[in-house]
Amino acid sequence: MTKREVETSGLKESAGATFRLLRPIDPGRDHVRGGGVPDPVSVVAYADLLCPYCQRLRHVIGRLREALGERLIYVFRYFPNERAHPGAERLARAAEAAAMQGHFSEVHDWVYEHVPPIAERDLFELVRSLGLDMARFTADLDGDETRRRVEEDLAEGRRNGVTGTPTLFIDGIRYDGAWDFYSMLEALERPVAARVQHTARVFASLPASGGLVLLLAAAAALLCANTPLRPNYEAFIQSSFNIGPSGMLSLTVAEWCSEGLMAIFFLLVGLEIRRESTAGALSDRRALALPVVAAVGGVLAPAAIYLALNRGPTAQGWSIPTATDIAFTLGILALLGDRIPPALRVFVAALAVVDDVLSVLTLAIVSPRDFHLGWLVAVGGATALLFTLNRWRVYATWPYALVTAFLWIALHGAGVHAALAGVLLAIFVPTQPAPAAGPLLAQAATALAALEHTENEARLAGRKTPRLEQAPVWDWASRNLSAASERLLSAADRIELTVAPWSAYVVLPLFAFSATGVHFAIDLSQAGADRILAGILVGLVIGKPLGISLATWLAIKSRLAVAPEGVTLHQFIGAACLCGVADTVALLMADRAFLPGPDSAIAKIGILVASMIAAVVGSLVLVTGSHGVARSPMTD
């Protein structure tokens, strides 16, 4: 839920569209060197023939080819930056014109051996010396074929998330490591640690990887709860885990997962809400209106249906069908690929943020019980301290971590769900204005130039392998490079980048494992069981899409909001049905609404069954939707 998979500048791009090479290597089309041996490794470079950094990287690629021989497949793809390097596009077309006569490598190497600018007459002299047909070369240089080829590589690079040159892909995954020889050699040779990292990046680049791990954890819990492993499973999640002297803070494993680990998840939710409300999809009033109204409708309708079916003690579970696990919804939309219009992804992602806000408010206002005034005062004090740290512009993360730990304890003691400490931390983590690139470029370039100067002096002095790390300039340069790198990210950004993988692949799966292990052999004849199950099933499968659709229709008809562009009614209804998929927060709501026991177990069964039905129905509606001319969803 923290990385909305949408295709818009206001929201972050899909990890799959950014890190994975969209088009595999094609020897019949690409400019390829090496290969033809068992177990090859590949480097695909999107590069500019006039880029000085590409020129420098060529020496590293050369050393790698010497070290790996034919095992290394090196692929060059055009990505000319005409604004930064005038003439780069024409030079790329010249290289392609030479490639049509089988001499791309000679032109590529010759260009990188010369310092720009490169005169066209010198290039023509090279081509003539290679024995090319000059009339054909000139015609190809100005022809449509070379222009189309360069433009295709450029457009493909942009779709791959390439924004600067060189951008490298090692074995199909974007390489964001250091460009020095030893770092790249390790990435290509792939020792055990590098292979694990590579495999993890490949898996993380899948559109629904987080949802898949969550699903596997839930399946494992159901398996344990409905097999002879059940006693061991229940003993594990109900075992106590104590912190502090004399067990000052004692919770079961399930409670630690619910209130402790979920604080990390809610931290990311809070950071995303904050980002989208200040500079994202929720910052524009007109763009905000439709998902806000739709999300409210998606809460009110299932709550009303549940309350209509439940009276008395079971009515307290009304909040359960209001929560949606948008991570699964966005994952399914991503898997459907081009069938889904970008505007629909944007709408669902924005609705997800509003849905998160409503879920947080529900937990904070409806769920708490047994308030303790003393602890509430402590909550206020910790919150005030976070505010003070923010106002003092403290950018180090450890003071916030200490205060948030105390805030978590205070919320737990006050009777409020302690995971909300993550949301409060997200509100007060400081941000900084984006830095100007020029000064940081000067700082980094100065540090690296000083290191290069020291290295050259050492070589001139006769030392073949200078030990730069022992030179006085090393510490100064490393500090400046670290400072320039850290300034690119605010404290909030650093926290999000660090915590997001842990949330997706550890926190949420552990919570799902502790919360979804329900025993299916439950007596539905007990008082209120059938009403709880029906309220959740009907609320999620019917109430959620009905509320979203009706609220959206009213908002558009009243001109409060505008319909998503290029989305058919069929597609909209399919996405609304997918919003009935519930897991993470809904399970949390079930634990808060009912004490552990039969009612909570029945509610969780209802959540799981309803989620499967909603996923299947929504996917079928989207797959069978019209592929004709798209119209406004409320005018079909």
Write structural notes for this entry.
The protein has 636 residues and is mainly alpha-helical. It has three domains: 21-188, Glutaredoxin; 209-367 and 417-430 and 492-623, Up-down Bundle (Na+/H+ antiporter like fold), CATH 1.20.1530; 437-487. The chain has helices spanning 15-19, 52-68, 88-99, 104-112, 120-129, 134-141, 144-159, 181-189, 192-204, 209-225, 230-237, 253-279, 285-309, 326-335, 342-365, 373-391, 398-414, 421-428, 437-460, 472-487, 491-515, 529-557, 569-578, 584-593, 598-623, and strands at 31-33, 41-47, 72-78, 167-170, 173-175, 240-243, 249-252. Strands 1-3-2-4-5 form a five-stranded mixed sheet. Strands 6-7 form a two-stranded antiparallel ribbon. The protein is globular, with a radius of gyration of 29 Å. Residues 1-17 and 628-636 have low confidence and may be disordered.
**Helix run count:** 25
Coarse structural class: mainly alpha
Uncertain residue ranges: 1-17, 628-636
Tell me the CATH superfamily of the largest domain: Na+/H+ antiporter like domain
User: According to CATH, what is the class of the largest domain?
Assistant: Mainly Alpha
The main β sheet shows up as: 5 strands, mixed
Strand ordering within the main sheet = 1-3-2-4-5
Topology of this protein?
Layout: H1 15-19, E1 31-33, E2 41-47, H2 52-68, E3 72-78, H3 88-99, H4 104-112, H5 120-129, H6 134-141, H7 144-159, E4 167-170, E5 173-175, H8 181-189, H9 192-204, H10 209-225, H11 230-237, E6 240-243, E7 249-252, H12 253-279, H13 285-309, H14 326-335, H15 342-365, H16 373-391, H17 398-414, H18 421-428, H19 437-460, H20 472-487, H21 491-515, H22 529-557, H23 569-578, H24 584-593, H25 598-623
Parallel strand pairs: 2-3
Antiparallel strand pairs: 1-3, 2-4, 4-5, 6-7
Helix pairs in contact: 3-4, 3-6, 3-7, 10-11, 10-21, 12-15, 12-18, 12-21, 13-15, 13-22, 14-15, 16-17, 17-18, 19-20, 21-24, 22-23, 22-25, 23-25, 24-25
